[in-house]
Amino acid sequence: MSVVSFKGTREGLVITLGEGEWHDVLNHLAAQLSRPGAQSFFQGARVFLETGSRALDATQIEELIALLGQYQMTLTAISDVASQAEYNRVRATMPAPPESLPAEESQTAPVGTSESYALLVQRTIRSGQLCQYAGTIVVIGDVNPGAQVVAEGDVIVWGKLRGVVHAGAAGNENAIVGALVLAPTQLRIGHLIARAPEGKRTRSFPEVARVREGRIVVEPWIES
Fold it and tell me: Is 110 exposed, middle or buried (0-12, 13-18, 19+ CB in 10 A)?
């Protein structure tokens, strides 16, 4: 596996860190970002960081934020739960960066609230991983038990949702959670919380959870 790899989506950029000493990885990332023509490609990107088995401390996260900031890139989430917690603490001490969009999207993407944006995750989110985004999250894959998905907008899972999910995390109770198999260990929408019912569920059709009359209800997910 390469030291650093990149995967672009319409909503942002996934950067995956490989093995090696931290400063070697950081230097390799800096070299990739500074290649001729790369700056215009990466400029304005929102970054989801895949760390694999690596956990980052506060100093490493600050170094990464500073490096990405040189290219007007914004780190939005980290796959490792402990690293994400450190990231949240670091961000809490820093001024909030302005929202930005890749240049090719700036004329067509809606501008305004964070719910206007979506992160596409084309993989299974495994136990111990956290996927967090200031907008809607769409997962093409499963969310395994022990995994967490936290979105300020909706959460849509094209697969089995069996982990912890929180939609409308900034307090939006109009957010929804939808999945082909909706069986989370804990489900939150806004400030409301629901736990999995006792016993094994055998539903074989897609379902959606939303807030109705002050409580979370689960309904068949069909076109209206």
Answer: exposed
